[in-house]
Amino acid sequence: MRRDFCDGVGIARLLNATLVLPKFEVAAYWNESSSGFSDVFDADYFITQMNGFVNVVKELPPEISSKEPHRVDCSKRKGQFDYIESVLPFLLKYHYVSITPAVSQRRDRYPKYAKAALCQACYRALKLTESLEKKANKLLEAIPKPFLSLHLRFEPDMVAYSQCQYSGLSPTSMKALEAARGDDRKPWTGEAARIWRNRGKCPLTPNETAFILQALSIPTNTSIYLAAGDGLMEIEGLTSIYSNVVTKSALLSGEDFETMHGNTKAALDYCVSINSDSYMATYFGNMDKMVAAMRAFKGLYRTLFLSRRAFAEFTSRGLEGKPLMEALWKAHKDDFIKGRGSALSDCFCEFKL
């Protein structure tokens, strides 16, 4: 959501349009009703910070708010897609449009004035609400220092989407996984499953994650903040080896935690992760890209993405135990020593804001 919103700011500047603060459609991820921008971010602060970059309003004027926006789906456009050519005519005709951004559109093709607006939004103007900031600070104070923030992805929907096979899962995990798979996400089998796994498409289990952490000589008494959603499967595979694992649900009071939306919980994970002593992720998804970029922007370089492909390739060769650990160390060594992660170059402005 943060990524798409920042893209929306850049697009609004490209089109010389006014940006309306959005509703976040969270139902697809957390089975909840949508919530507003102001439930997560300080809207007044954002509008003030964006002054001079792009015009932002909280609500539409009455003469427009009664209408449905003209929807423009740019998501499947490829190549050098041009928003001015493809979207501006609709904006001029209907005066009110909503956009599904083109995922393939590279931000480094934006003119500098649009890059400046996007970067100002992403790195200077987005601040959590006061209540969320208090919760985030409460979490940061409660986590034993120094600590590693670990973004571990092994939820039923994630594993179902990957279409990967796993043996040895508990009956509870298998039941949750089968429910998430339905009829259209059956796992690959045979040679196709092997090829798929060796391409690094299969999420690391908590047990595999713990094994890689040991291969990287991360002490088993390390304080680990688990940046993850509800419903993680097989978490005992990690906690049986790394005993100092803490979660937001354990550190926040029950009332604080239970009344939060899924996206506000994710915002806490994001905030803790960009302020952690180290950050590791088992997946290079949208949150991980944003965290890596922000950590690099802040000069925090202890960021590492664990290699699913390396783990799959080595285990398919029959490596296990110490030889597997040595191979995993070599696969991660350069990134581990540099500690710079993979902040994308087009996340940053080419000049000082």
From TrEMBL:
<dbReference type="GO" id="GO:0006004">
    <property type="term" value="P:fucose metabolic process"/>
</dbReference>
<keyword id="KW-0808">Transferase</keyword>
<keyword id="KW-0328">Glycosyltransferase</keyword>
<comment type="pathway">
    <text>Glycan metabolism.</text>
</comment>
<protein>
    <recommendedName>
        <fullName>O-fucosyltransferase family protein</fullName>
    </recommendedName>
</protein>
<keyword id="KW-0294">Fucose metabolism</keyword>
<dbReference type="InterPro" id="IPR024709">
    <property type="entry name" value="FucosylTrfase_pln"/>
</dbReference>
<keyword id="KW-0472">Membrane</keyword>
<dbReference type="Pfam" id="PF10250">
    <property type="entry name" value="O-FucT"/>
</dbReference>
<keyword id="KW-0812">Transmembrane</keyword>
<dbReference type="GO" id="GO:0016020">
    <property type="term" value="C:membrane"/>
</dbReference>
<keyword id="KW-1133">Transmembrane helix</keyword>
<dbReference type="GO" id="GO:0016757">
    <property type="term" value="F:glycosyltransferase activity"/>
</dbReference>
<keyword id="KW-0735">Signal-anchor</keyword>
<keyword id="KW-0325">Glycoprotein</keyword>
<comment type="similarity">
    <text>Belongs to the glycosyltransferase GT106 family.</text>
</comment>
<dbReference type="GO" id="GO:0005737">
    <property type="term" value="C:cytoplasm"/>
</dbReference>
<dbReference type="InterPro" id="IPR019378">
    <property type="entry name" value="GDP-Fuc_O-FucTrfase"/>
</dbReference>
<keyword id="KW-0119">Carbohydrate metabolism</keyword>
